[in-house]
Specification:
single chain; alpha/beta; TIM Barrel; CBS-domain; 8-stranded parallel beta sheet; 3-stranded mixed beta sheet; 20 strands
Protein backbone atom coordinates (compact mmCIF):
# COMPACT_ATOMS: atom_id res chain seq x y z
CA UNK A 1 0.00 0.00 0.00
CA UNK A 2 1.21 3.50 -0.72
CA UNK A 3 -0.11 7.05 -0.45
CA UNK A 4 -0.29 9.31 -3.47
CA UNK A 5 1.79 11.79 -1.48
CA UNK A 6 4.21 10.38 1.15
CA UNK A 7 3.77 13.54 3.23
CA UNK A 8 0.32 12.28 4.21
CA UNK A 9 1.88 9.47 6.23
CA UNK A 10 2.79 12.05 8.86
CA UNK A 11 -0.85 13.13 9.26
CA UNK A 12 -3.37 11.54 11.60
CA UNK A 13 -6.04 10.03 9.34
CA UNK A 14 -9.27 8.11 9.70
CA UNK A 15 -11.38 6.22 7.14
CA UNK A 16 -13.33 9.15 5.75
CA UNK A 17 -10.05 10.96 5.04
CA UNK A 18 -8.87 8.52 2.35
CA UNK A 19 -10.08 6.75 -0.76
CA UNK A 20 -8.85 3.85 -2.89
CA UNK A 21 -7.48 4.64 -6.34
CA UNK A 22 -8.72 2.60 -9.32
CA UNK A 23 -6.10 0.77 -11.41
CA UNK A 24 -5.84 -1.15 -14.68
CA UNK A 25 -7.43 -4.59 -14.31
CA UNK A 26 -8.03 -7.69 -16.43
CA UNK A 27 -10.31 -9.35 -13.83
CA UNK A 28 -13.61 -10.04 -15.58
CA UNK A 29 -15.75 -11.05 -12.60
CA UNK A 30 -15.86 -10.73 -8.81
CA UNK A 31 -15.98 -14.53 -8.68
CA UNK A 32 -12.35 -14.60 -9.80
CA UNK A 33 -10.99 -13.00 -6.62
CA UNK A 34 -10.06 -14.88 -3.46
CA UNK A 35 -10.94 -13.15 -0.17
CA UNK A 36 -9.42 -15.86 2.05
CA UNK A 37 -7.12 -14.07 4.54
CA UNK A 38 -3.79 -14.97 6.07
CA UNK A 39 -3.76 -17.66 8.81
CA UNK A 40 -6.54 -18.18 11.34
CA UNK A 41 -9.17 -20.75 10.53
CA UNK A 42 -11.38 -18.38 8.54
CA UNK A 43 -12.10 -18.14 4.85
CA UNK A 44 -13.21 -14.50 4.95
CA UNK A 45 -11.34 -11.74 6.80
CA UNK A 46 -13.96 -10.94 9.44
CA UNK A 47 -14.28 -11.95 13.11
CA UNK A 48 -17.28 -11.44 15.37
CA UNK A 49 -16.62 -9.57 18.60
CA UNK A 50 -16.67 -10.95 22.12
CA UNK A 51 -19.54 -8.70 23.22
CA UNK A 52 -22.33 -10.09 25.39
CA UNK A 53 -24.86 -8.57 22.98
CA UNK A 54 -23.21 -10.06 19.88
CA UNK A 55 -21.73 -13.54 20.17
CA UNK A 56 -23.20 -16.56 21.90
CA UNK A 57 -24.13 -20.03 20.65
CA UNK A 58 -26.49 -19.13 17.80
CA UNK A 59 -24.10 -16.57 16.36
CA UNK A 60 -21.18 -18.96 16.79
CA UNK A 61 -22.79 -21.81 14.90
CA UNK A 62 -23.93 -19.67 12.01
CA UNK A 63 -20.69 -17.73 11.62
CA UNK A 64 -18.53 -20.85 11.69
CA UNK A 65 -20.68 -22.35 8.92
CA UNK A 66 -20.29 -19.09 7.04
CA UNK A 67 -16.50 -18.93 7.08
CA UNK A 68 -16.01 -16.57 10.05
CA UNK A 69 -14.36 -16.95 13.42
CA UNK A 70 -16.37 -15.92 16.42
CA UNK A 71 -15.12 -14.94 19.88
CA UNK A 72 -17.06 -15.99 22.97
CA UNK A 73 -17.28 -13.29 25.69
CA UNK A 74 -15.09 -13.47 28.76
CA UNK A 75 -18.06 -12.74 31.06
CA UNK A 76 -19.61 -16.15 30.48
CA UNK A 77 -19.09 -18.66 33.29
CA UNK A 78 -16.64 -21.50 32.66
CA UNK A 79 -19.43 -24.07 32.91
CA UNK A 80 -21.54 -22.24 30.34
CA UNK A 81 -18.51 -21.68 28.10
CA UNK A 82 -17.70 -25.39 28.00
CA UNK A 83 -21.32 -26.25 27.19
CA UNK A 84 -21.37 -23.81 24.29
CA UNK A 85 -18.05 -25.14 23.00
CA UNK A 86 -19.39 -28.68 23.08
CA UNK A 87 -22.59 -27.62 21.32
CA UNK A 88 -20.72 -25.82 18.54
CA UNK A 89 -18.26 -28.66 18.04
CA UNK A 90 -21.14 -31.11 17.72
CA UNK A 91 -23.12 -28.96 15.27
CA UNK A 92 -23.34 -29.91 11.64
CA UNK A 93 -20.88 -27.99 9.45
CA UNK A 94 -23.52 -27.43 6.76
CA UNK A 95 -27.01 -27.70 8.26
CA UNK A 96 -28.78 -25.41 10.72
CA UNK A 97 -30.58 -26.20 13.97
CA UNK A 98 -34.38 -26.36 13.62
CA UNK A 99 -36.85 -24.46 15.77
CA UNK A 100 -39.44 -26.97 16.98
CA UNK A 101 -42.79 -27.03 18.76
CA UNK A 102 -45.07 -29.87 19.84
CA UNK A 103 -48.71 -30.51 19.02
CA UNK A 104 -49.81 -28.86 22.28
CA UNK A 105 -48.03 -25.58 21.57
CA UNK A 106 -49.78 -22.46 20.31
CA UNK A 107 -49.12 -19.59 17.93
CA UNK A 108 -48.05 -17.56 20.96
CA UNK A 109 -45.31 -20.14 21.63
CA UNK A 110 -44.25 -20.00 17.98
CA UNK A 111 -43.99 -16.20 17.93
CA UNK A 112 -41.75 -16.33 21.01
CA UNK A 113 -39.03 -18.36 19.26
CA UNK A 114 -39.49 -17.72 15.53
CA UNK A 115 -36.97 -14.84 15.41
CA UNK A 116 -34.19 -16.73 17.18
CA UNK A 117 -32.78 -17.93 13.85
CA UNK A 118 -32.83 -16.25 10.49
CA UNK A 119 -34.52 -19.16 8.73
CA UNK A 120 -37.61 -18.21 10.80
CA UNK A 121 -39.23 -21.59 10.28
CA UNK A 122 -41.12 -23.50 12.98
CA UNK A 123 -41.22 -27.28 12.60
CA UNK A 124 -44.08 -29.09 14.30
CA UNK A 125 -42.96 -32.45 15.70
CA UNK A 126 -44.78 -35.34 17.37
CA UNK A 127 -43.78 -37.03 20.63
CA UNK A 128 -41.22 -39.14 18.75
CA UNK A 129 -39.54 -36.08 17.19
CA UNK A 130 -40.97 -36.83 13.76
CA UNK A 131 -41.61 -33.66 11.70
CA UNK A 132 -45.24 -33.00 10.80
CA UNK A 133 -45.30 -29.54 9.21
CA UNK A 134 -43.26 -26.36 8.67
CA UNK A 135 -44.71 -22.93 9.51
CA UNK A 136 -43.68 -19.37 8.70
CA UNK A 137 -44.87 -16.24 10.48
CA UNK A 138 -47.25 -15.51 7.60
CA UNK A 139 -49.17 -18.70 8.51
CA UNK A 140 -50.23 -17.07 11.77
CA UNK A 141 -51.75 -13.86 10.41
CA UNK A 142 -55.34 -13.14 11.49
CA UNK A 143 -55.39 -16.09 13.88
CA UNK A 144 -55.82 -15.97 17.64
CA UNK A 145 -52.49 -16.37 19.45
CA UNK A 146 -53.86 -19.24 21.52
CA UNK A 147 -54.65 -21.33 18.45
CA UNK A 148 -52.80 -24.63 18.59
CA UNK A 149 -50.21 -25.07 15.86
CA UNK A 150 -51.54 -28.50 14.92
CA UNK A 151 -54.91 -26.96 14.00
CA UNK A 152 -53.40 -24.85 11.20
CA UNK A 153 -53.69 -26.88 8.03
CA UNK A 154 -50.61 -27.28 5.86
CA UNK A 155 -49.97 -29.25 2.72
CA UNK A 156 -47.98 -32.49 2.74
CA UNK A 157 -44.51 -32.10 4.27
CA UNK A 158 -41.39 -32.69 2.17
CA UNK A 159 -38.35 -33.98 4.06
CA UNK A 160 -34.96 -35.34 3.02
CA UNK A 161 -31.90 -37.05 4.42
CA UNK A 162 -28.54 -35.50 5.21
CA UNK A 163 -26.76 -36.79 2.10
CA UNK A 164 -28.65 -34.48 -0.26
CA UNK A 165 -26.37 -31.98 -1.99
CA UNK A 166 -27.04 -28.27 -2.14
CA UNK A 167 -28.14 -28.05 -5.76
CA UNK A 168 -30.57 -30.96 -5.39
CA UNK A 169 -32.03 -29.41 -2.25
CA UNK A 170 -32.34 -26.01 -3.95
CA UNK A 171 -34.21 -27.52 -6.92
CA UNK A 172 -36.61 -29.43 -4.65
CA UNK A 173 -37.46 -26.25 -2.73
CA UNK A 174 -37.82 -24.22 -5.93
CA UNK A 175 -40.08 -26.82 -7.56
CA UNK A 176 -42.31 -27.05 -4.50
CA UNK A 177 -42.39 -23.35 -3.57
CA UNK A 178 -40.93 -23.93 -0.11
CA UNK A 179 -38.08 -22.11 1.64
CA UNK A 180 -36.79 -24.84 3.97
CA UNK A 181 -36.30 -28.59 4.01
CA UNK A 182 -36.38 -30.61 7.25
CA UNK A 183 -33.49 -33.09 7.36
CA UNK A 184 -34.32 -36.43 8.96
CA UNK A 185 -32.64 -39.67 9.92
CA UNK A 186 -34.98 -42.66 10.21
CA UNK A 187 -37.79 -40.07 10.06
CA UNK A 188 -36.42 -38.31 13.16
CA UNK A 189 -35.81 -34.58 12.73
CA UNK A 190 -32.14 -33.68 13.14
CA UNK A 191 -31.45 -30.47 11.12
CA UNK A 192 -32.97 -27.99 8.72
CA UNK A 193 -31.65 -26.81 5.33
CA UNK A 194 -32.96 -23.59 3.79
CA UNK A 195 -32.91 -22.33 0.23
CA UNK A 196 -30.50 -19.55 1.24
CA UNK A 197 -28.24 -22.08 2.98
CA UNK A 198 -27.84 -24.10 -0.22
CA UNK A 199 -26.67 -21.06 -2.17
CA UNK A 200 -24.12 -19.92 0.36
CA UNK A 201 -22.88 -23.44 1.13
CA UNK A 202 -21.93 -23.68 -2.54
CA UNK A 203 -19.94 -20.44 -2.44
CA UNK A 204 -18.07 -20.55 0.89
CA UNK A 205 -16.42 -23.13 3.12
CA UNK A 206 -16.97 -23.49 6.88
CA UNK A 207 -14.30 -22.57 9.44
CA UNK A 208 -13.05 -25.85 10.89
CA UNK A 209 -10.54 -26.91 13.53
CA UNK A 210 -8.07 -29.80 13.25
CA UNK A 211 -10.84 -32.26 14.13
CA UNK A 212 -13.01 -31.01 11.24
CA UNK A 213 -15.43 -29.44 13.70
CA UNK A 214 -16.81 -25.91 13.56
CA UNK A 215 -14.12 -23.65 14.97
CA UNK A 216 -14.31 -20.90 17.57
CA UNK A 217 -12.20 -18.62 19.73
CA UNK A 218 -12.51 -17.53 23.35
CA UNK A 219 -11.79 -14.18 24.99
CA UNK A 220 -10.28 -14.30 28.47
CA UNK A 221 -10.04 -11.58 31.07
CA UNK A 222 -6.66 -10.87 32.62
CA UNK A 223 -8.29 -11.53 35.99
CA UNK A 224 -9.41 -15.09 35.22
CA UNK A 225 -7.38 -16.46 32.30
CA UNK A 226 -5.15 -18.63 34.49
CA UNK A 227 -7.93 -20.85 35.88
CA UNK A 228 -9.76 -21.16 32.53
CA UNK A 229 -7.19 -21.65 29.81
CA UNK A 230 -6.34 -25.28 30.58
CA UNK A 231 -10.01 -26.28 30.32
CA UNK A 232 -10.27 -24.49 26.97
CA UNK A 233 -7.15 -26.07 25.49
CA UNK A 234 -8.43 -29.49 26.58
CA UNK A 235 -11.67 -28.68 24.71
CA UNK A 236 -9.75 -28.16 21.45
CA UNK A 237 -9.75 -24.36 21.57
CA UNK A 238 -6.71 -23.18 19.63
CA UNK A 239 -7.32 -19.41 19.47
CA UNK A 240 -7.31 -17.33 22.66
CA UNK A 241 -7.93 -13.58 22.94
CA UNK A 242 -6.59 -11.75 26.01
CA UNK A 243 -8.96 -8.86 26.58
CA UNK A 244 -8.40 -5.63 28.45
CA UNK A 245 -9.23 -2.04 27.56
CA UNK A 246 -5.72 -0.78 28.37
CA UNK A 247 -3.18 -3.42 27.53
CA UNK A 248 -0.05 -1.32 28.06
CA UNK A 249 0.57 -2.72 31.51
CA UNK A 250 2.96 -5.21 33.04
CA UNK A 251 -0.11 -7.32 33.87
CA UNK A 252 -0.84 -7.93 30.18
CA UNK A 253 2.77 -8.61 29.24
CA UNK A 254 3.14 -11.05 32.14
CA UNK A 255 -0.05 -12.84 31.10
CA UNK A 256 1.20 -13.30 27.53
CA UNK A 257 4.53 -14.67 28.72
CA UNK A 258 2.90 -17.10 31.17
CA UNK A 259 0.43 -18.41 28.61
CA UNK A 260 3.11 -18.80 25.94
CA UNK A 261 5.49 -20.59 28.32
CA UNK A 262 2.87 -23.30 28.95
CA UNK A 263 1.07 -23.43 25.59
CA UNK A 264 3.39 -22.99 22.64
CA UNK A 265 0.97 -24.17 19.94
CA UNK A 266 -2.07 -21.98 20.53
CA UNK A 267 -2.76 -18.77 18.62
CA UNK A 268 -2.60 -15.95 21.17
CA UNK A 269 -4.18 -12.62 20.26
CA UNK A 270 -3.83 -9.59 22.52
CA UNK A 271 -5.32 -6.11 22.39
CA UNK A 272 -5.48 -3.11 22.19
CA UNK A 273 -2.77 -1.11 20.41
CA UNK A 274 -2.35 2.05 18.33
CA UNK A 275 1.43 2.71 18.24
CA UNK A 276 4.52 0.96 16.93
CA UNK A 277 6.11 0.39 20.36
CA UNK A 278 2.89 -1.02 21.82
CA UNK A 279 2.60 -3.55 19.00
CA UNK A 280 6.27 -4.43 19.22
CA UNK A 281 6.05 -5.04 22.98
CA UNK A 282 3.14 -7.47 22.56
CA UNK A 283 4.86 -9.42 19.80
CA UNK A 284 8.13 -9.55 21.73
CA UNK A 285 6.19 -11.09 24.62
CA UNK A 286 5.12 -13.78 22.05
CA UNK A 287 1.60 -12.81 21.19
CA UNK A 288 0.87 -14.04 17.66
CA UNK A 289 -1.53 -11.29 16.67
CA UNK A 290 -2.54 -7.88 18.00
CA UNK A 291 -5.74 -5.89 17.64
CA UNK A 292 -5.98 -2.17 16.88
CA UNK A 293 -8.85 -0.54 18.72
CA UNK A 294 -9.22 2.99 20.06
CA UNK A 295 -12.84 3.32 21.26
CA UNK A 296 -14.24 5.06 18.20
CA UNK A 297 -17.94 4.35 18.04
CA UNK A 298 -21.36 5.80 18.71
CA UNK A 299 -21.99 4.29 22.14
CA UNK A 300 -18.49 4.63 23.53
CA UNK A 301 -17.78 7.74 25.58
CA UNK A 302 -14.25 6.77 26.69
CA UNK A 303 -12.57 8.66 23.87
CA UNK A 304 -14.52 11.88 24.28
CA UNK A 305 -14.26 11.85 28.09
CA UNK A 306 -10.59 10.85 28.51
CA UNK A 307 -9.22 12.15 25.19
CA UNK A 308 -7.18 8.94 24.92
CA UNK A 309 -7.44 8.00 21.28
CA UNK A 310 -5.96 7.97 17.81
CA UNK A 311 -7.58 8.08 14.33
CA UNK A 312 -8.02 4.54 13.07
CA UNK A 313 -6.18 4.67 9.73
CA UNK A 314 -3.02 6.01 11.37
CA UNK A 315 -3.31 3.53 14.23
CA UNK A 316 -3.64 0.58 11.82
CA UNK A 317 -0.86 1.80 9.55
CA UNK A 318 1.71 2.16 12.33
CA UNK A 319 0.75 -1.11 14.04
CA UNK A 320 0.98 -2.94 10.70
CA UNK A 321 4.50 -1.70 10.10
CA UNK A 322 5.58 -3.12 13.47
CA UNK A 323 3.82 -6.45 12.96
CA UNK A 324 5.46 -6.94 9.54
CA UNK A 325 8.85 -6.92 11.21
CA UNK A 326 7.86 -9.98 13.24
CA UNK A 327 6.00 -11.80 10.49
CA UNK A 328 2.62 -11.67 12.24
CA UNK A 329 -0.62 -9.88 11.57
CA UNK A 330 -3.07 -7.42 13.05
CA UNK A 331 -6.83 -7.35 13.48
CA UNK A 332 -8.50 -4.00 12.92
CA UNK A 333 -11.46 -3.15 15.09
CA UNK A 334 -14.37 -0.72 15.34
CA UNK A 335 -15.59 2.28 13.42
CA UNK A 336 -16.71 0.02 10.62
CA UNK A 337 -19.91 1.55 9.33
CA UNK A 338 -19.71 0.49 5.70
CA UNK A 339 -17.80 -2.07 3.60
CA UNK A 340 -15.43 0.71 2.51
CA UNK A 341 -14.00 0.88 6.06
CA UNK A 342 -13.15 -2.82 5.96
CA UNK A 343 -11.68 -2.38 2.47
CA UNK A 344 -9.34 0.42 3.58
CA UNK A 345 -8.17 -1.58 6.62
CA UNK A 346 -7.31 -4.57 4.42
CA UNK A 347 -5.55 -2.28 1.97
CA UNK A 348 -3.43 -1.14 4.93
CA UNK A 349 -2.41 -4.82 5.39
CA UNK A 350 -4.71 -5.64 8.30
CA UNK A 351 -5.49 -9.33 8.07
CA UNK A 352 -8.96 -9.36 9.67
CA UNK A 353 -11.61 -7.01 10.92
CA UNK A 354 -13.73 -7.47 14.04
CA UNK A 355 -17.44 -6.61 13.72
CA UNK A 356 -19.57 -5.45 16.65
CA UNK A 357 -22.83 -3.53 16.37
CA UNK A 358 -23.46 -4.56 12.76
CA UNK A 359 -23.91 -8.12 14.08
CA UNK A 360 -25.88 -7.11 17.18
CA UNK A 361 -29.02 -6.38 15.15
CA UNK A 362 -29.16 -9.81 13.46
CA UNK A 363 -31.51 -12.62 14.40
CA UNK A 364 -28.56 -14.71 15.57
CA UNK A 365 -27.32 -12.23 18.19
CA UNK A 366 -28.10 -13.32 21.77
CA UNK A 367 -31.06 -11.47 23.19
CA UNK A 368 -34.68 -11.61 22.08
CA UNK A 369 -36.33 -9.18 19.70
CA UNK A 370 -38.47 -6.62 21.51
CA UNK A 371 -41.16 -4.23 20.32
CA UNK A 372 -42.15 -0.66 21.04
CA UNK A 373 -45.27 1.05 19.68
CA UNK A 374 -43.87 1.27 16.14
CA UNK A 375 -40.98 -1.12 15.51
CA UNK A 376 -39.19 -4.32 16.41
CA UNK A 377 -35.73 -3.82 17.87
CA UNK A 378 -32.81 -5.43 19.67
CA UNK A 379 -30.78 -3.98 22.50
CA UNK A 380 -27.06 -3.41 22.32
CA UNK A 381 -24.66 -2.50 25.11
CA UNK A 382 -20.92 -2.25 25.63
CA UNK A 383 -18.65 -4.14 27.96
CA UNK A 384 -18.10 -1.35 30.49
CA UNK A 385 -21.71 -0.16 30.52
CA UNK A 386 -24.02 -0.30 33.52
CA UNK A 387 -25.77 -3.39 32.12
CA UNK A 388 -22.51 -5.24 31.40
CA UNK A 389 -21.02 -4.35 34.79
CA UNK A 390 -24.19 -5.55 36.53
CA UNK A 391 -24.05 -8.83 34.62
CA UNK A 392 -20.35 -9.31 35.38
CA UNK A 393 -20.74 -8.64 39.12
CA UNK A 394 -24.03 -10.49 39.74
CA UNK A 395 -22.38 -12.92 42.19
CA UNK A 396 -20.93 -10.16 44.37
CA UNK A 397 -22.64 -8.56 47.37
CA UNK A 398 -25.06 -5.71 46.72
CA UNK A 399 -22.63 -3.30 48.37
CA UNK A 400 -19.73 -4.40 46.14
CA UNK A 401 -21.98 -4.24 43.09
CA UNK A 402 -22.87 -0.65 43.92
CA UNK A 403 -19.17 0.17 44.25
CA UNK A 404 -18.35 -1.36 40.86
CA UNK A 405 -21.17 0.54 39.15
CA UNK A 406 -19.39 3.79 40.01
CA UNK A 407 -16.67 2.86 37.51
CA UNK A 408 -18.84 2.07 34.51
CA UNK A 409 -18.23 3.72 31.14
CA UNK A 410 -20.22 4.14 27.94
CA UNK A 411 -23.90 4.35 27.20
CA UNK A 412 -25.68 1.42 28.80
CA UNK A 413 -28.10 0.36 26.08
CA UNK A 414 -29.00 1.26 22.56
CA UNK A 415 -31.99 0.20 20.48
CA UNK A 416 -31.19 -1.24 17.07
CA UNK A 417 -34.29 -1.24 14.90
CA UNK A 418 -35.35 -3.57 12.10
CA UNK A 419 -33.37 -6.74 12.92
CA UNK A 420 -32.12 -8.57 9.85
CA UNK A 421 -30.69 -11.96 8.89
CA UNK A 422 -26.97 -12.48 9.35
CA UNK A 423 -26.84 -13.24 5.64
CA UNK A 424 -27.49 -9.60 4.81
CA UNK A 425 -24.41 -8.40 6.66
CA UNK A 426 -22.21 -11.15 5.23
CA UNK A 427 -23.27 -10.66 1.62
CA UNK A 428 -22.87 -6.90 1.84
CA UNK A 429 -19.25 -7.04 3.02
CA UNK A 430 -17.99 -9.93 0.90
CA UNK A 431 -19.57 -8.57 -2.27
CA UNK A 432 -18.16 -5.06 -1.95
CA UNK A 433 -14.74 -6.32 -0.88
CA UNK A 434 -14.60 -8.47 -4.01
CA UNK A 435 -15.60 -5.45 -6.10
CA UNK A 436 -12.85 -3.29 -4.62
CA UNK A 437 -10.28 -5.98 -5.41
CA UNK A 438 -11.36 -6.06 -9.07
CA UNK A 439 -10.89 -2.29 -9.28
CA UNK A 440 -7.26 -2.65 -8.18
CA UNK A 441 -6.45 -5.79 -10.23
CA UNK A 442 -5.94 -7.90 -7.09
CA UNK A 443 -6.83 -11.59 -7.21
CA UNK A 444 -6.15 -12.17 -3.50
CA UNK A 445 -5.77 -10.11 -0.34
CA UNK A 446 -1.97 -10.11 -0.43
CA UNK A 447 -2.02 -8.61 -3.91
CA UNK A 448 -4.67 -6.16 -2.76
CA UNK A 449 -2.56 -4.74 0.06
CA UNK A 450 0.52 -4.61 -2.20
CA UNK A 451 -1.21 -2.84 -5.08
CA UNK A 452 -3.54 -0.53 -3.15
CA UNK A 453 -2.92 3.18 -3.55
CA UNK A 454 -4.64 5.54 -1.09
CA UNK A 455 -5.36 9.17 -1.79
CA UNK A 456 -6.29 11.72 0.85
CA UNK A 457 -9.51 13.67 0.32
CA UNK A 458 -11.04 16.79 1.77
CA UNK A 459 -14.37 16.79 3.56
CA UNK A 460 -15.92 18.36 0.48
CA UNK A 461 -14.74 15.48 -1.71
CA UNK A 462 -16.21 12.96 0.67
CA UNK A 463 -19.54 14.80 0.60
CA UNK A 464 -19.55 14.90 -3.19
CA UNK A 465 -19.19 11.12 -3.40
CA UNK A 466 -22.25 10.33 -1.32
CA UNK A 467 -25.55 9.65 -3.15
CA UNK A 468 -27.52 12.86 -3.83
CA UNK A 469 -25.22 14.79 -1.48
CA UNK A 470 -26.82 13.11 1.50
CA UNK A 471 -24.65 12.22 4.47
CA UNK A 472 -26.15 10.32 7.36
CA UNK A 473 -25.59 12.43 10.44
Amino acid sequence: MRFNNPDHITKELTFDDVFLFQQLSDIKSRTQVNITPNPLSTTIPIISSNMNSVTWKRMAQKLARLWWLWVLPQDMSLEKTLKVIDSVHNSDIRLDEPLTLTEEDTIRDALWIINKRSHQGIILIDKNNKPLAVYKESDFYWLDQYTKIKDIKKRALIVWEKWINDEEAFNIMEDNWISSLPIVENWILIWILTRDDTIRNSIYNPSLNKNWQLDLAIALSLNSYNERIEHLVNSWINTIFLDTAHWYTTKMLDAIKKVRAKYQDIILIAWNVMWWDWTEALLKAWANWVKVWIWPWAMCTTRMMTWVWRPQVSAILESVEASKEYGWFIIADWWIKYPRDLIIALALWASHWMLWTLLAWTYESPWDIMEDKDWKYKQNWWMASWKAVTWRTKDLSRFEQARRERFREWISTWRIYNPKPLWDVIDKFTTWLSSAMTYTWAKNLEEFSNKAKLWVQTTAWFQEWTPHWEIKK
